[in-house]
């Protein structure tokens, strides 16, 4: 019986997804320094297999295998870049308040507003400029990515004012990264205001967590 290339692609992708879900490295805390390299290769293989099966009309199976190999190589390279970049940032940044999260397809550098700005200000404190300059140097060393700078506030005060403040703070961080050599074309600034909390705004601690600027590093596939 002839199997359609659509069904073959779906089956291959489903099998790979199931294998990812049963991989212990994807279930618990990250203990393997190369975890994201492996995860990137797996995800790239899944996508490559699907694309290869759909685009090779004469032999979907062969197309899936070729696509999986190409996708795995590209995904592994991106994962390896993120692993290395995250490790360097953790070594270089002196402030314990800055957190670095490697999700496998991007890095999120979260900088609390409380240590970055004075109340109701969007001028970066001198003590934090050196850390942001180190982030800029890291981004220059790893040029194959785009950078989103996203400002967030808590829910205190007027929502429209918080929106504007989050935009101004994102732009202030972007200015430092650009001054440090990061191309303007790589950077997008976004103000989220109070719209994307990561904790409850009903407690002082939750509000503190919500007041932040995130520097999101997204590989562009040229790693």
Automatic annotation (TrEMBL):
Question: Signal peptide: which range, if any?
Answer: 1-19
Transmembrane stretches, by residue range?
A: none
Tell me one Pfam family matched here. Answer: Gly-zipper_Omp
**Which Gene3D superfamilies does the UniProt entry name for this protein?**
OmpA-like domain
This protein is called OmpA-like domain-containing protein
InterPro entries attached to this UniProt entry: Bact_OuterMem_StrucFunc, Gly-zipper, OMP_bac, OmpA-like, OmpA-like_sf
- What GO terms fall under cellular component here? cell outer membrane
Q: What is its main location?
A: membrane
Is the keyword Signal in the record?
yes
Which of UniProt's keywords are assigned here?
Answer: Cell outer membrane, Membrane, Signal
UniProt superkingdom: Bacteria
Domain OmpA-like residue range list = 104-221
Compartmental location: Cell outer membrane
């Amino acid at each position: 019986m002839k199997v359609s290339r659509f069904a073959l692609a779906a089956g291959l992708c489903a099998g790979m997804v199931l294998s990812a879900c049963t991989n212990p490295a994807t279930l618990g805390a990250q203990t393997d320094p190369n975890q994201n390299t492996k995860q990137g290769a797996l995800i790239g293989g899944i996508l490559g297999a699907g694309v290869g099966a759909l685009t090779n009309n004469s032999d979907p199976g062969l197309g899936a295998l070729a696509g999986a190999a190409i996708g795995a190589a590209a995904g592994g390279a991106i994962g390896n870049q993120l692993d290395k970049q995250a490790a360097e940032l953790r070594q270089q940044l002196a402030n314990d308040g800055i957190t670095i999260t490697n999700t496998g397809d991007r890095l999120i550098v979260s900088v609390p507003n409380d240590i970055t700005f004075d109340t109701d200000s969007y001028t970066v404190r001198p003590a934090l400029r050196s850390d942001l300059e180190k982030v800029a140097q890291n981004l220059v060393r790893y040029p194959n990515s785009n950078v989103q700078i996203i400002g967030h506030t808590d829910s205190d005060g007027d929502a429209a004012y918080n929106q504007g403040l989050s935009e101004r703070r994102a732009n202030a961080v972007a200015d430092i990264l650009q001054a440090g050599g990061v191309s303007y074309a790589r950077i997008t600034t976004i103000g989220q205001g109070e719209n994307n909390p990561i904790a409850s705004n009903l407690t002082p601690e939750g509000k503190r967590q919500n007041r932040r600027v995130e520097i999101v590093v997204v590989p562009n596939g040229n790693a």
